[in-house]
């Protein structure tokens, strides 16, 4: 890297001298303007290559898992080059939903009932044209869990499916707020909470009952990853899942809330997400008025206030602190009993770096943390014009393929 920087600086000096003496373009009366632009560009390139583009930190609880990832998921050891003109955390977070393309994916919908009379909507991408796994009973199945306000139409979900379609896998997407969403009436006065994994367990058991012989994996993004980790921590090895991956998880909700309540983050993210949460429950307010003061809920100005007035009350917590303690996945990471890869960016304002459970991960041989220096929250944009796949997409594709095709090697290492 140092030699590359030196070469770039030498090139900059040589080109600047050439432009000053040979080029006359009328910019500031001489070629000096172009020379300054070139010099600035080279200086920025030096800064980018030395301070922005870096290899991720790989933290594992066992040498065997680390070797497995280096052999079969090499992207976690390669330098991540964030989009050169948009590498700052908030920029990456805000830009992705607007710039990312949305590959066409046709879903098949299924509605299943829960034990309490509620309904869960499932979106399937069956991939019936798979040439690698023509037998549907053994076709690898991936369960995808989007973020807090996400659905099966999110660009990152569509890219995960599109990139891996060629692998021949089948995908199932289950999204939050599914009870009462997609034009369906809410059957029971209940929505969701990261700590409550009953609906997720129902979905996982249902899928496994349909395809008991198929390799079964799961991936969760943001709040979907938090729910998935809490489920895995509770179940240990008693889960039909073979492996899992999470992306941009908030490890400690207290730290997440504190970060999102800083003025700029509140303005850019917190207030908008709060209004989304309020809108999602207000359309069914007649179901909640007997146990919750909905007028008070609709006056909440932050996610923490919403959770204090709505989520913690609905799920019977004595205080918001009890709710957040139970919902934070950092406490359950030590109990995860299957291979899990967790991708986070240390500049993610939704998940502060000091709250990432690095020491806990080192104590569990089933866990691998992949920590990038940049990437924001579900950003991980790369390339000059990042409309297509992201670094996150590539990590997902390589990891699920590695677990499906080579996962048996972990038991022999």
TrEMBL record:
It holds the Pfam family Abhydrolase_1. The active site is at residues 222, 348, 377. Its main location: membrane. The chain crosses the membrane at residues 25-50. Residues 140-383 form the AB hydrolase-1 domain. It comes from the Eukaryota. GO terms for molecular function: acetylesterase activity; monoacylglycerol lipase activity; phospholipase A1 activity; phospholipase A2 activity. Keywords: Hydrolase, Lipid metabolism, Membrane, Phospholipid metabolism, Serine esterase, Signal-anchor, Transmembrane, Transmembrane helix. It is a single-pass type II membrane protein. Belongs to the AB hydrolase superfamily. AB hydrolase 4 family. PANTHER family: ABHYDROLASE DOMAIN-CONTAINING PROTEIN, PHOSPHOLIPASE ABHD3. This is Phospholipase ABHD3. It comes from Phyllostomus discolor.
């Amino acid at each position: 890297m140092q030699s590359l920087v030196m070469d770039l600086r030498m090139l900059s000096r040589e080109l600047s001298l050439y432009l000053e003496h040979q080029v006359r373009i009328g910019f500031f009366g001489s070629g000096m303007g172009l020379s300054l632009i070139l010099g600035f560009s080279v200086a920025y390139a030096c800064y980018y290559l030395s301070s922005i583009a870096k290899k991720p930190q790989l933290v594992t609880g066992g040498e065997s898992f680390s070797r497995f990832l280096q052999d079969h998921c090499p992207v976690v050891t390669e330098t991540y080059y964030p989009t050169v003109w948009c590498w700052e955390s908030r920029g990456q977070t805000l830009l992705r939903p607007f710039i990312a393309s949305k590959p066409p994916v046709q879903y098949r919908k299924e509605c299943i009932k829960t034990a309490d009379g509620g309904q869960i909507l499932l979106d399937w991408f069956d991939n019936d044209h798979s040439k690698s796994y023509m037998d549907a009973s053994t076709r690898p199945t991936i369960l995808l869990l989007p973020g807090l306000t996400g659905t099966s139409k999110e660009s990152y979900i569509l890219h995960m499916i599109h990139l891996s379609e060629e692998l021949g896998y089948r995908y199932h997407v289950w999204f939050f707020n599914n009870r009462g969403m997609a034009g369906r009436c809410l059957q029971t006065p209940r929505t969701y909470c990261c700590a409550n994994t009953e609906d997720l367990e129902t979905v996982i058991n249902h899928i496994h009952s349909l395809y008991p012989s198929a390799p079964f994996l799961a991936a969760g993004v943001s709040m979907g990853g938090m729910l998935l980790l809490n489920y895995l921590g509770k179940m240990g090895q008693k889960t039909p899942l073979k492996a899992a991956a999470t992306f941009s998880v908030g490890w400690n909700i207290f730290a997440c809330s504190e970060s999102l309540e800083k003025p700029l983050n509140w303005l850019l993210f917190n207030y908008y997400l709060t209004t989304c949460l309020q809108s999602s429950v207000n359309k069914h307010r007649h179901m909640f008025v007997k146990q919750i003061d909905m007028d008070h809920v609709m006056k909440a100005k932050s996610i923490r206030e919403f959770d204090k007035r709505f989520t913690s009350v609905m799920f019977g917590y004595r205080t918001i602190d009890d709710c957040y303690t139970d919902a934070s996945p950092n406490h359950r990471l030590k109990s995860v009993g299957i291979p899990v890869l967790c991708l986070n960016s240390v500049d993610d304002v939704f998940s502060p770096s000091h709250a990432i459970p690095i020491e806990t991960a080192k104590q569990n041989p089933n866990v691998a943390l992949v920590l990038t220096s940049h990437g924001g929250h579900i950003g991980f944009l790369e390339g000059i014009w990042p409309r297509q796949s992201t670094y996150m997409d590539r990590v997902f594709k390589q990891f699920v393929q590695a677990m499906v095709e080579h996962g048996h090697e972990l038991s022999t290492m």
